[in-house]
Amino acid sequence: MEGDPAAPTLFGVTVSFTIADGQLSAFLALVRRNAADSVREEEGCLRFDVSVPADKSASPVVFLYELYRDRGAFDLHLRSGHFLAFDRASSHLAVEKTINTYLVSEHAKT
Question: pTM of this prediction?
């Protein structure tokens, strides 16, 4: 990918939140609103998925997959009012947060 100008790359972000006991519903309400606002209001936000464990007995981990046009679009997301409001309102609901970033090549699309 790197060094190949013909390889289209996007900027991907994954975030995994371990949610505090009894806080999953409150967290999901906030993160789903942030996701919807992101794809609706940010031209550079191409995808924002919110995933929860299929097994309801599993630990409450919420996994986000976000796809942006480029790193600059993600940086704009981090400064957006809706993200900052989400970050403030949800900070006490998660006990752990892991963020990873990626360069993404869309092989399934032509």
Answer: 0.89
